[in-house]
Structure formats: C-alpha cells, structure tokens
Amino acid sequence: MKTKLTFLALYVFLGILKISAQCSFSPAITSPRLGVMFPDKVVFCNTESETLTTQTYDSYQWYRQEWDWQTPNPNPWVPVPGATSQSLTIDGANDMLYYFKVEVSLNDCTAESPAILSDGYAYALPAMLTTFTPGTYQQIDAGEYNVCNGSSVTFENIFPVLYGLHTWYKCVPANIPPVLGDPCIISGATGDSYTATDSGEFGFYACTEYCPDQCEFLGLGGFVKLNFGNWGFCGLVTGEVDPKENDLSLYPNPATQVLFIGKESDKTYDISVVDVSGRLILQKSNHQYKEAIDISGLTAGNYFIISKSAGGKIYKNKFIKK
C-alpha cells in the first residue's frame, strides 16, 4: 500500500511538473507599424486598421485589456470574441488605448505573448511656439504683438517629430485644407518652423509624417498677429548707453510698492520697465523725476528700467521687486 501511494504521489508530481513546465517556444506579436515609433506600441493612422500576427501554432486566443494609468493595470484581460486565428485586425476607431496579447498552444504546451498597446494618441494636436528677440516686442492683446522693424519672430511647431509637410500662413486662410492659390499661404514655407520679418497673422496646417493623410490645422485661436513698426519702445533695451551718463538715482532698491528714478536736470523721461526676458511690462511718458512709479502689481523678480530723457539720453538701471 505504501508503494502504491509513493507511486501515485510521484505521478501527480510529474503531472504538475509537466503542466507548469516552460514551453520551448515564445510567441510574439508582429505588425507593420509595431515598433516604428515606440517599441511595444502600434500607432494608428486614424483612418486605418492594423493586422496583428503571431507565429504558427496549433491554436490561438487573442485578448485585450483597456489601458489605465495605474500600475499594475486593474482592468481585466478579456478574450476577443471569435479571435482564434493566427492574426487579428484592430482599428483606431474601436481599439484605441487597448493592450493586446495572444495565448497559443503547441504540442499540449500553452504560452502567452508579451502585450502590445494600440495607440493613436501619440499625435498631440498641433501647437506653436513663438520666439521673440528680447527688447523688440510688446504684447498689446491676446495673440497680438507690436514688433520693432528690423527684428524677427520665429514660429515653431512644438511637435516637429510628429509632423512632416507644413503649410504656413501669413493671414487667416479662406479654406482648410489648403487650396492652391490662397493668398494667405507663404510660398515655399513647408518646414517645422518659419521666421517672420513682416506684419501678418501667422499659423500653420500640417500633415503627420507617420500618416501622410492625417493632417491637422493649428486653429485660429493659435494664430499670432504681428505688427512690425518703429514703435516707441524700440531700441530701449538694446540702445547704446554711455556709462558716464548712466548715473540716475533709483530708490528704494529692492522695492515693494513704488519706485523713484531720475535727476532734476533732465526734468522728464519716457519710462519703460522690462523683465529679464526683454518683455515690456510697464510704460509711462513724461514721467517727472519726483513722481512715484507704482510697481505693486509686478511679480517678484529682477527688472530693467529704461529711461529716455527729453534730450534723447538713454539710461538703463536694474531693480529688484520684492
């Protein structure tokens, strides 16, 4: 009896060992777009489907799991109904942000592939970065700037790696998608950036490099209007200052509420307060040297104050707002 029990225990142990033994094969998922942008993701074009495939085995069952920001993912793996063949077709409309894996069997051994993610949201909506030369611009409204003649402003697509061919505009276009002959289209401007030296209202339309038929418009809310001209603030920050003449009295410094600057011999000044990036923050004409300048609304930090006397002398002082 003891011998029989020992044999039975050995048989059960070997059976368990056989069930839990690692298979000699490793299924993997392949597809045309898998790994093109990210190693474990299929990035869709929004009008296309994608076929996932694995190696040849005896049987197949495909599973999917909804994406979640948490790790580990709390969502269950669910069998895809009817998905029992070597390949599975997924699409951007129904399978976006789902993980997929396939369970296969061969010679009574069962194994699973690593999971991959179907992701069509790698394409952020277009956005534009605007770069000014410090001291050459003044914002006058949301998305509108006065810019000094002779300077330039550079516009860049914030997501250049995602987008290929661009259409740049110098005014609000009449048609979207672009139509050949639209006078707002800047001829020859098809790259990720454009540098403007003349007045206009600038933005772009771009097609994704990965999906040439998938194109996006920046939207009129993202356009930037530039007015180039010889504005009063032009040259203040970059103008020549004679060190011998840069002797204006400025107090208190640091300051919290008000600031006094000037000397009696100059009588009046045109005053400009500029932040460290060169952006014009505050401007005042015919400032009397004994008058207080209200800086209570400024954010704490370092600032330049440029003073131009009635005689044309330019003084540049630095102060700290506490």
From TrEMBL:
Which UniProt keyword terms apply here?
Signal
Q: Name one Pfam family in it.
A: Por_Secre_tail
Q: Does the keyword Zinc apply?
A: no
All copies of the Secretion system C-terminal sorting domain together span 250-320
Return the InterPro entries for the record.
Secre_tail
- Per the UniProt entry, the signal peptide is 1-21
Name assigned to this protein: Secretion system C-terminal sorting domain-containing protein
